[in-house]
User: What shape does this take?
Amino acid sequence: GIQVEQSPPDLILQEGANSTLRCNFSDSVNNLQWFHQNPWGQLINLFYIPSGTKQNGRLSATTVATERYSLLYISSSQTTDSGVYFCAVNYGGATNKLIFGTGTLLAVQP
Amino acid sequence: DTEVTQTPKHLVMGMTNKKSLKCEQHMGHRAMYWYKQKAKKPPELMFVYSYEKLSINESVPSRFSPECPNSSLLNLHLHALQPEDSALYLCASSSAGTGFDTQYFGPGTRLTVL
Assistant: This one.
């Protein structure tokens, strides 16, 4: 099956710093989503981005489908950005079976 | 309104108990999902319902029994669970269950089996 690896696994930032999170996947995908899981467990949708670039406030994402990776950029980080960031992909198949990546645990310190 | 609700938020049960987790969405979505997430791991798919029919069962033990009474509701019935079943159970929905949908997740039920 498809492998979805994220890097780095852990990241500590000072408030105001910028960061780039990476998601590599081993096969072609139909669908790629980025999520932020807050400390209470809620998975919050950030982007639906099977290809191209999108921006939403301080966050932006780029997926290069032909090279099988996606990047999530966080600028001017805030303590509320802390949590785990997951990418998730759907590949092949008609049903939306999401395969989650390994996650990046982000801690933003004041 | 992109909201999926789940009840209860927390559940503690013994190995002989029967309990149910509930999930509801009012976005008109026709696909609903159950995921299981162990501590410090990513979510893993358990079941998919598409147009109220079970379309995927990821070889989940029979002590977990899903039910989709209508297009807005999804239940997960629990019976004779083991302590290793303790986890965060997440429900999600998407518009049609195709490979191109966006999935929206509920806040989860944190289950502890004693």
Q: What stands out?
A: DSSP finds no helices and eleven strands in chain B. The longest strand of chain B covers residues 18-25. The CA atoms of residues 1 and 27 of chain B lie 7 Å apart. The interface with chain A takes residues 2, 31, 33, 37, 42-45, 48, 50, 55-56, 88, 90, 94, 97-105, 107-108, 110 of chain B (CB under 8 Å).
